[in-house]
Write a structure and sequence with these properties.
The complex is a heterotrimer of chains A (492), B (149) and C (489).
Chain A lengths: L14 H12 L4 E2 L2 H4 L16 E3 L4 H14 L3 E4 L16 E4 L7 E5 L4 E4 L5 H11 L3 E2 L11 H6 L7 H4 L6 E7 L5 E3 L36 E8 L1 E2 L3 E9 L2 H13 L5 E6 H5 L16 E9 L2 H21 L5 E5 H8 L14 H4 L3 E4 L2 E3 L4 H14 L5 E7 L4 E10 L1 H21 L3 E2 L4 H10 L2 H14 L13
Parallel strand pairs in A: 2-4, 3-4
Antiparallel strand pairs in A: 1-2, 5-6, 6-10, 7-11, 8-9, 8-10, 12-14, 12-15, 13-14, 13-18, 16-19, 17-19, 17-20, 18-19
Helix pairs in contact in A: 7-9, 7-12, 12-13
Chain B lengths: L1 H11 L2 E2 L6 H10 L6 H8 L4 E6 L4 E7 L2 E6 L7 E5 L1 H8 L5 H6 L3 E4 L4 H20 L11
Parallel strand pairs in B: 1-4, 2-5
Antiparallel strand pairs in B: 2-3, 3-4, 5-6
Chain C lengths: L10 H12 L4 E2 L2 H8 L12 E3 L4 H14 L3 E4 L16 E4 L7 E5 L4 E4 L5 H11 L3 E2 L11 H6 L7 H4 L6 E7 L5 E5 L34 E8 L1 E2 L3 E9 L2 H13 L5 E6 H7 L14 E9 L2 H22 L3 E5 H8 L14 H4 L3 E9 L4 H14 L5 E7 L4 E10 L1 H21 L3 E2 L4 H10 L2 H14 L15
Parallel strand pairs in C: 2-4, 3-4
Antiparallel strand pairs in C: 1-2, 5-6, 6-10, 7-11, 8-9, 8-10, 12-14, 12-15, 13-14, 13-17, 16-18, 16-19, 17-18
Helix pairs in contact in C: 1-3, 7-9, 7-12, 12-13
Classes of the chains: A alpha+beta (492), B alpha/beta (149), C alpha+beta (489).
Amino acid sequence: MTDVLKRQSYIGIEKEKVLEHLIKIFGKPNVTDKNYNLIAYSYDMTESPPRMPDFVVLPKKVEEIIQLVNFCNQYCIPIVPYVSGNNVGGLTIPEEGGIICDMGKRMKKIVKINESLMYIILEPGVTFGQLKKFLDDHHPNLKYGYAMAPPYASVLANALLSGISNLSTKMGSMGDMINGLEVVLYNGELIRTGTSFLSKEMKDDNWFARYPMPDLTGLFIGWQGTTGIVTKGALQLWSRKKYNAALMGIIYTAENCANVLQEFGRSECCEDVCSISAELAKMVWGFEKPQKLKEEPDYIVMVSLSGATKELLQAKINYLRQIFNELKEKAENKRMFLVNFDTFINIVGKEFAVYYNIPNVLTPLYEWDGLTWVGSYAHPDRIAKLMNTVYGLYKKYEMGPMIYSKSMKGGHYSVLRPMVRFQKVREEEKVKKMMHEILEVMLEENCVPYKAPSWMTEIIRKKCDPNWVKLLERIKCTMDPNHIFNPGKWGL
Amino acid sequence: MRKKLIILLRWMKISIINKPDDILGLAIKNLFTPFLHDEKFIKRINKLNRIIVLELIDVYPLTLTFHEGTIRIEYGENPDYDLKLRITVEAFAGIAEGKVGLIGALLKGNLKVKKIYRLLTVLKFYRILFPAIKKATETPILEGVINIL
Amino acid sequence: MSPNIFDQISKEETLTELISIFGRKYVSKKPSDLYPYSEDATESDPHMPDFVVLPKNVEEIVQLIKFCQKYSIPLVPYISGNNVGGLTIPEYGGIICDMGKRMNKIISINESLMYAILEPGVTWGQFKKLLDEKYPTLKYAYTYAPPYASVVANTLLSGLSDHSCAYGSMSEFLNGLEAVLNTGEVVRTGSCFLSKEMKEDNWFARYPMPDLTSLFIGWQGMTGIVTKAAVQLWPKKKYNTALAALVYGDKTCAKVVQELGRTECCDDVSAMSSTVAKMTLGLENPSQYEQEPDYAVFITVSGNTRELLEAKVKYIKYIFDRIKAQEGERIFLTNFFTLANLLGEKFTIYYDLPSVMLPMVEYSGITWVGTYANPDIIGPLLIECRNVFAQYSRAPLLFMKSMKASHYCVFMAITRYKKYEELEKIKELQKKFLDLTLEYDCFPYKTPKWMTEVIRERCNPGWLKLLDMIKRSMDPKNVFNPGKWGFEF
């Protein structure tokens, strides 16, 4: 167990009594204070420093969470909400000890689906794989936006952290797919935001919109679990179209790649337009530290689109070809090629399909024990410059460039994600330095990191509007006066 | 003297003597209004003293009463009509867009005429209504909008 | 009895202070100046403010807020008063902060990132003109509102637009904003937060930081005064068309709107009862004949290529024909252009937005119960609303719009009336509509005070407590637009 850190916790209660109380709430099999259980929650694959929790609990029902929160609030015990720990940002590492509330193991029901209004109500533990299977098997007319994440990552966590998906080029951040949330507040109050608020008892059949009432849903989006514990979310689904296509751009130069991303995004024909650096592409073939050879293309752009009719799909493809040809015409380096994704993988190998068939375990990303990134929302017209600068940093630190980018919400903004996989014991210090430098470059270009770990938010806080920080703290104090929810994140 | 004055007035303009309050009636009024001072139109109206029913199939009928240079547009069907035209909505829109002609609509069965033996009346009415439709639709109102259907 | 809001400072001293902030020309306490702010076209009860001020810049607003907070004087943000919800009527008097007159700059347009930074007073007409003239490749989403209504207000109040079918509520178009808080601090939310001084080139996204923008959306000015907003623009497509459908049957119309919205081919799918259409053509109290179509549905579609546009329209037609076959009802699809030509130029107001819908503004009173609704229940709701209109011998003015590919829709029961003759009857009518829509789990937007009172009694108590918590945090003295959402002064 940890010693009590910075702020005062466990006020008026001993840790042994805490264990007793937790067992009363959750039952003995669902509580642990054993180091060999706790250690798994003390770190993740990122460079964030490990910190041990004091307890782990596995809740099954909302009522248990309410009791937990009431208890923790009374004695100022930190609670860290946890689902699958795949956030690549150290967001579930307990900065100040306390209790890990692992909802991933037992709170994973798909509560309800409304086909007509196209939304689904999920508990936090529902994974991408589980959701996809459920929809494919039982509701084949509907789909969700899947992240390039393992199938065991949490759907709701991704949405709450403004994650991205294979519908983001069309619809934007996953934060905008949230119709409403059910949350346990610091005082044990259970609330619902979004249209489901309009009934005294909690009804599941009216959770169809986030607006137009005062927007309380935003109090839990991007907050990294520091304002309450989300126990359910209503998320938007979309119609699955009959005809689907995937294209692939083989692109030389970052400038060309950035232009393709931006213009394809703006075409409003694509559901997803993203790019990966050549080295990241080559990793699927098992190269440990793949090098891009001189004449090899620099980036691969992957495009998914669909249409309710063949004509619609064909018309979209024709338009994309037109754009591509126009870009090629104007480009300095004219080496850029657009092909069918299917043709490409048939030629180069089916391993490549992993980038399309998501959710998926992208083995290259997980076969080492360390993975981190500085994922940011960025200006589309600065992507090329960023790609080149960041590429230089990879070379400087002798790491394989793993650069991922996506066009978002019709080209209004982009996501840039320079990733690093590394061997924790040997390379962690080097990676930390590298991440710092990458962050500096991104912030210089007005990028806003998402799923930002504590070390990043510390830097961001110093750079940003001080009044924004004050407002952030004010709301935090309102929502969590005793600072029990995931303390330490965003400097709170 | 009075009779001469009436005839003179009749030749100067046509009047729609009621304000229709149904959609189709309002549309017909809209179509005719620009022509109320048009010489050719006035001549044609004056030669047509008939009760004509225009029905959009599956919508509703409208009765147009042409009498001594006046036009009355009324919702519903006057059973004492002299002529009745029944036309599909698609054919009506098609005529408006210049894609379909009267004969074409007749031959395809999209336009049916009751008391068609009153051929002259048919022709007279056609020469009144359909140029009005054509005129209304020849200048696009909406900029930058194309007709796709 | 209304509290005495000038118990800590006299009215005269207040006037002196306001003049020192704004200048004599931009402050008034004359009843003739105050009267227009005391009421609007709705049935909301009138209340006179004590002062009106016309700020020019953020610094003046900062001083104003500090002053009002110090002496607990109610402060009501105002732009054009066209919200159809009594939201700018000062429930407890105080000061109207009218930003519509002098804070109406379009600060910048970022073509590449497709957003515009606006002051609150920027109107639809002003915005459209600038875009059409200087940025013809970009468009915003326009609403069924007069050209002199405020863009920012519509966004903050989760209004609708002619692209709502594609993109949803106007609140989803917001990248970020600048607001003055109760402390007088000026805060920026959204990606523009990431710099100490304000920069114009980084207002490109609302996320991914903690979503503080939400503290000002749907709050009716109760949490601070918004002084700038960044709204998303969209590329203007080369090919555009508009379709119109004439539909018989309430349930059929609901189905048409829902299914066409779901195609994800339409920018806008809106339906209105034929009585609304007839009003546009000049009929004062139009009735509907038995055989007349019940609704007119407007559909706008666009595409970057002709091929795309044709493919979309073909698919829309296919869906339309399928509904026709399934429902067995009479429904007809045609080009909007054709219908507009037949009915007259006035009809184009439904396409050529923003526009003054004369039928809506030619009487002294206009009001509605406008709600976000579940598309599945709209059919029966329409029927019930018709009955209510019939009970009050009024032409049914019904409107619905598909939102975000029919994930939800907006439904409105509209009433225009003669304020000084029919007010009590209209209040009764409104109450009936509200009860009906709440029964169907619809949620009203731009809710006037009397509606929020009813809603508060029905909703989740935990939600109310959280609302209360946030309001107390953002405005402990309840100076910002007190009286709205049940926050009594």
